Please model this.
Amino acid sequence: MNRLYGYFMEPQNFSVNDGEGIRTIIFFAGCPLRCKWCANPEGLESAVRIFFNAETCIGCGKCALNCPSGAGIDLRLPEEREKCTSCGKCVQSCPTNSRKILVRRCSSDEVLNMLERQEIFYRHSGGGVTFSGGEATLQQDMLRELVNSLYDRAVNLAIETSGYFEFEEVKDILEKLDLVFIDIKHMDNSRHKAFTGVSNEKILKNIRKLGELDFDVVVRIPLIVGVNADADNITETARFVKAAIRNPKIELLPYHNFGDEKYEALGIEKPSRDFKRPSVEMVNALEELIRAEGVDVISYL
Model:
């Protein structure tokens, strides 16, 4: 096996939210979108990232003493974050674990060995591995190697994707998957571009192509009041999904701000407070609109 390297966030074992059974979620770092509500800001770039927790820091200064580039204690400050090269020496010296590595450079062998230790749980629960991100298709060679290896071991495979990829470049990978989760952030192209930085044309085109392949496709909508949680947008999305996918399914994912701590720790401005989580009543009403269009509403939460 060729020894490939890639950039990954912390994996999540024993997940039951991104496919059937007990699963491991492999989070690839790097994303072509810049969603203004992103919950995983550490995964925007394919690079090692250092997390700093100011609440547990005791200010001993060991991190600064061991930093070869002269970064100070508080990595929330832009001038200190700019000095950081993410070498990890501060992580090793911190007595309170206030520094940790959020994105690591790993070999394909390291990832596969970790997954092999979890395989017994997949077998007994009907679970498997789900690739997420960031955007897994950005690290195409690494994704291909992991998929091919796990496919040969008959591990159930899923992917959670933004849909922003060149279809023909990854078609061979997609054809070995059992389930694809793909996001539609907004049906209006101008609003999609305003909120994510990219057009939705490629994403919608790829969803149509996915609908021609022989596996389940679930369209996920990150549901955000003030962005896309209105009746017109949800109805239009459901109609598109109904026309594009055999056995059409939609999952609504209500917005949360659980990633705010990461923004602080990485010295990045937090998402707007204008983004709101929809009420249970709003979610139920929008689910009824989806069903009225002949699309199944499902939930892995």
Remarks:
- DSSP finds twelve helices and eleven strands in the chain.
- The mean pLDDT is 95.
- The first strand starts at residue 5 and ends at 9.
- The two ends are 36 Å apart (CA to CA).
